[in-house]
Write a structure and sequence with these properties.
It is built from 13 helices and 18 strands. It has 449 residues and is of the alpha/beta class. It folds into three domains: 119 residues, Rossmann fold (3-Layer(aba) Sandwich); 239 residues, pyruvate-formate lyase- activating enzyme (Alpha-Beta Horseshoe), CATH 3.80.30.20; 63 residues, OB fold (Dihydrolipoamide Acetyltransferase, E2P) (Beta Barrel). Strand 12, helix 12 and strand 13 form a beta-alpha-beta unit. Bound molecules: iron/sulfur cluster.
Amino acid sequence: MHYLSSDTIHLRTKSIHPKKVKIITLGCSKNIVDSEVLKSQLEANQFNVQHETDRHAPVVIINTCGFIDLAKEESINTILEYADEKKQGRLEKLYVTGCLSQRYKDDLEQEIPEVDAYFGTMELPSLLNTMGATYRDELLGERSIVTPAHYAYLKISEGCNRTCSFCAIPLMRGQHVSRTKESLVKEATHLANRGVRELILIAQELTYYGLDLYQRRALPELLDQLCQVKGIEWIRLHYAYPHKFPLDIIEAMKRHPQICNYLDMPLQHISDPVLKAMRRQITSDETKELIAKIRDMHPEIRIRTTFLVGFPGETQEDHEALCRFVEETKFDRVGVFEYSHEEGTRGYVLNDDVPAHVKKERAEELMAIQQSISAAHNTSLVGRELKILIDRKEGGQYVGRTEYDSPEVDNEVWIESTDKKLQPGEFVIAKITQASEYDLTGMFVKEWK
Ligand code: SF4
């Protein structure tokens, strides 16, 4: 047994460096969560995992997006970039997973054969297996997050049962599957114990939560339980659906100070012929009634929404109706997408008759309307003292967000702090001194206790 002396064992283990792997995440916050699950599984199998760093790693995994043309293009360009690295001998292995791979696996295998293997959105165990790792059940509910340590996304369900005619997501993510309340509370507790203060609840369709599992809409119940998790200061709601919107969510929001007075609810359009063609299951009047009802129940609420312009058959009148709706409703946050003609969706049988330049003009017109509304909303906050979550330091200033702002998509607050050193993840009170269309400036007042 001489060769197993401690020196030789030391030499042997010393020579086995944990394999370096780099994960690249494209697309939405749901893909970020999938990459975080993958990261923690690989780390549990002794891999040294980097996420989106410039550092080199011999093995690269690209978690792709396949939602619309622009996103698909970005995914394909990223794959080609690393395929070239592989051709140059600078990469040992290249793997591709996520929505684009789920949707176009056969084509991709033919078009870009440099990739060692392509995996779908539900094929984590097989990806791990291919890398010589084993899927660890015991890690369920545990994730090594790649967002800043003080906030994390919590994906409460996968897939979608809706049939919006422009949307390819159900093709890539399948039918709606809710996670159990217990597993979500366990995950939230795990995240809170690691310093997460803000939980951002995401899904393809948030308000559908529980209908499959509990035969009832159970988001308010889940919120009641998540609000008991120690350390979580903010809970934010994204991707609500307007049709049959359960107003008891607003009651839960008023009941719990942790739940931000913020609701993201993509509406896509307001003209009835377009809403019908989009299969949104809601009319213009019902949409307006819902917004008025929510604001009446909870005047403090800030609503983020998303619109889609250039859907087949959208007339100038339809677009003007949408512009008037945005002008009159004065949403707090608005995002605009241009319609992308996606094969396999119900909309694909329609004639993509709105020219690209018209789509672009309509999107720009809507954003221009929103820009002045956003400026007015922000100006109304000047002089107010607001609770701010510090995200980072940039130059001599601290940058944070109010409860009305989600990371990456909404406004930021730039804070002058004369003598007090602030930390990311810290909550402070700041007095708003200036406002622009999409940002605020403020002075540090005191720590939030
Ligand atoms: S709700 Fe509609 S737009 Fe959203 S993921 Fe489901 S089908 Fe797509």
